[in-house]
Fold this protein.
Amino acid sequence: MKTDYDVIVIGAGPGGSMAARKCAEEGLDVLLIEKRQEIGSPVRCAEGVSKKGLQKFVNPQKKWIAAEIRGAKIYSPDGTEIVMSEEMAGSEVGYVLERKIFDRYLARLSARAGAEVLVKTRATGFERENDIMKVKMVHFGEQIDYTAKIIIGADGVESKVGRWAGIDTTLKLSEVESCVQYLLSGIELDPEYCLFYLGNNVAPGGYVWVFPKGEREANVGIGVLGSRVDRRPKEYLDEFIKKSYPGGKPVEMVVGGVPVKGEIETAVSDNVMLVGDAARHTDPITGGGIINAMEAGVYAGEVAGIAVEKGDYSAQTLSLYDEKWKSTIGKTIARNAILKDKFVTFTDDQLNSLAKALEGVKLEDLGVTELIRRIITKNPKLLWDIKDLFLKAR
Amino acid sequence: MNMIKVNRLKCAYCGACIGVCRFDANELIETWVEINDKCTECMACVRICPVGALEVENEN
């Protein structure tokens, strides 16, 4: 059995699978491991992605698209509605995926490209020896020790790889959303619109979402900022559902922590790169993480290819990966972290006045940046101190 | 002595509690959370748990 690899990717979510696939395409010997027995399950996600973002990496397939979305409606605490079309609603609107099938599909693509895949396999630590990583793993209850030149940690919100490598990604309570969601069946809804509800009594420091998954079914979930949790998110959500979808029947419950930390200083150390939730790559405003993770996975694979060719896996060489993600997805992540820190301080009255300023404005051909710009020009005081982020160079 | 305990009947093994632990005192192993003796009872995990599956228990 092969035990020496160029790259071991830890975690087979979208980030890990894309990284493994890219590594394989670069001609590297790559192993993708997943601690669960099933890739893609249990889901920890609202499953929304933008069409454009997704199409950069895979051709959309019917079997893992639950619904196609035309736009988003945002509701302020007093019910003021902002309608946005799909092109500008951010990284979360476009398709609602069936993650269980989607994640497996991506893993399969990496396998087809040549990656080895092991499930029910958990990394328990690693040691560096002569510039090679000895990776300790438990596979189906059995200790196995493999080696790799490079480890890609795509091990999610609960990442251990970063810790082992000395990259501090610990989330403060103000840097993570505590989330619960039901797949709610038997409800009346417009299957073409994602809904977002804001308000300090609805979801403190977060929002409630309704993402349709077909005619009478939707992911209905909530994220509450960790530092603002006074009651359990589940209690807030149950209350919302009782009021808005009293007849809805939950056929699945999903729980998760979504990083909203913003850009971390570095996602590399010697022989190690972090990808996706493990690198806190989620968008702090939308909470969307799938596309960012996929993009980061591709960059990590590219850089692994370069490093292996050079025979140099030092942090200095791998810092090319930092350059790549920071100059692309990192820019939006950093900016939206500042915006998020601002938004979570708003009172209901302030949220209402922001929404009122945009009431009746046609938001068809605007981007998220443009939306914030509109708010700033209409309500300059509220976002005054961060206006330069949005009003300066595009 | 107080201890943080996982109510496995409530836990949905999402990993949020591991993300907020500064002490590397917990781990998500397939479908359960384990808490080790590095725990300082700082309560971060108890506060972030979306479903209230972590509880402080008095050993005495």
Notes: Residues 25 and 37 of chain B are 7 Å apart (CA to CA). Helices of chain B lie at 16-19, 44-48. Residues 2-58 of chain B form a domain with the Alpha-Beta Plaits fold (CATH 3.30.70.20).
